[in-house]
Design a protein that fits this description.
250 residues; 15% strand
Length: 250
């Protein structure tokens, strides 16, 4: 089972101090990767991985940032996009979701992530030793939201979120096709809802909507992520793996 190990690999994880990013980064460490987290926030307390302060919400700066990291660390083998920057009014949903908010969030969440992934693929290709890129998308990039699960709460999902995640998914396929001949693989996972203290009524409705009758925990995303960036997935590129408890199967 050594093909699942990441010993000798250097991994960079954006948004590494977030709920999903931290779980994935720690999973990479457990699999043997030299893991460096990138986050705009400062690391609270001790971590199993080192953390570099980096703002990955600006597409104009993303390419230079990735190139700088590539030069500084002498290359890297794994790039994982977990960053989730957003505006203060994020989550308002239509009709309160303004065009300005839509544009700002598309720029921060989709454009910046796509530009960073492209720059990472270029850096890997230049060094000629292949590599793996993983984007964290969402089931809402694959299927329409089920708005019934939000009944009785103040929660909803912004329209921009579906556009952003759908765009990231197809850009994943684009990069896979563009860089495949260089040995760089590009895949995505599409998580379902991750438990984060949501209202009980939402959790109950969400659970009923899934085959496994529960929301995801952040650690549920670790195994699929490690698999897709490991040699166990050496012939896997351009795929989007739902990690959703069966949401998209029903």
């Amino acid at each position: 089972m050594t093909i699942f190990r990441l010993d000798g690999k250097r991994a960079l994880v954006t948004g590494a101090l977030g709920r999903i990013g931290a779980a994935v980064a720690e999973g990479l460490v457990d699999a043997g990767a030299d893991t460096i987290g990138l986050d705009i926030a400062e690391a609270p307390g001790a971590r199993a991985f080192s953390v570099e302060t980096a703002d990955l919400s600006d597409p104009e700066a993303a390419t230079q940032l990735v190139r700088g990291l590539d030069e500084r660390f002498g290359g890297f083998d794994i790039w994982i996009n977990c960053a989730y920057p957003r505006t203060d009014d994020w989550g308002a949903g239509p009709p309160r979701e303004s065009p300005a908010s839509w544009t700002a969030n598309v720029t921060m969440q989709m454009t910046a992530s796509c530009v960073a992934a492209d720059a990472a693929a270029q850096a890997m290709a230049r060094r000629g030793r292949g590599g793996a890129i993983l984007n964290v998308a969402s089931i809402y990039g694959l299927v329409a939201p089920d708005f019934d699960v939000y009944d009785g709460t103040t929660m909803t999902t912004p329209a921009a979120y579906s556009a952003i995640k759908g765009g990231m998914i197809n850009h994943t396929r684009y990069l896979a096709a563009r860089y495949g001949e260089t040995g760089v693989r590009v895949n995505a996972i599409a998580p379902g809802g991750v438990a984060a203290g949501q209202p009980d009524s939402f959790v109950a409705a969400y659970n009923r909507r899934t085959a496994l009758k529960r929301m995801a925990e952040a650690h549920d995303l670790v195994g699929p992520s490690v698999f897709l960036v490991s040699d166990a997935a050496a012939y896997v590129t351009g795929v989007v793996l739902p990690v959703d408890g069966g949401w998209t199967a029903l």
